[in-house]
Write a structure and sequence with these properties.
Blueprint (H helix, E strand, L loop, with lengths): L7 H22 L24 H4 L7 H74 L1
Helix pairs in contact: 1-3
């Protein structure tokens, strides 16, 4: 669909997707392999054994603040387009409600105009009938 037919929300989502895609492509060129959001448990697992989950499985130690910070940043960057969409959702709802009120008012105004026109047409028809009756009485 042409850009001028799309709503603000759709345009913002498309822009965010394009930006995210561009960032992914730049990340792939840097040698990193991005698979999206991967949530893993941080800290030690209960029950022993090195299961491969958690921060240790990702090469991050529980006291590695830089690694944890990097994970949080990736999560935040990945969730930002969704958060931005949610921000515009309320704005779009308000705009739709405002437009609905406009059209309800517009309908009411034109309904009144139609009623007035119909009343006038009825009076005009009665006047024409009265003139024809008087014309008939004269002749």
């Amino acid at each position: 669909a042409p850009a001028d037919e799309q709503g603000v929300l759709v345009r913002d989502i498309l822009e965010a997707e394009a930006k995210l895609k561009k960032e992914r492509e730049e990340g792939d060129e840097g040698g990193e392999e991005s698979t999206g959001i991967v949530l893993k448990r941080l800290g030690k697992r209960h029950g022993g054994g090195g299961g491969g989950g958690g921060a240790a499985g990702m090469g991050i130690k529980s006291n590695d603040h830089a690694g944890i910070r990097e994970l949080v940043q990736k999560l935040t960057q990945s969730s930002h387009p969704l958060a931005k969409s949610m921000d515009y959702l309320q704005e779009d709802l308000e705009n739709m409600a405002k437009e609905y009120r406009f059209w309800v008012t517009e309908r009411r105004v034109f309904q009144e105009k139609l009623g007035e026109e119909q009343r006038m047409a009825g009076e005009e028809g009665a006047s024409d009938a009265q003139l024809a009756d008087l014309d008939g009485q004269i002749h």
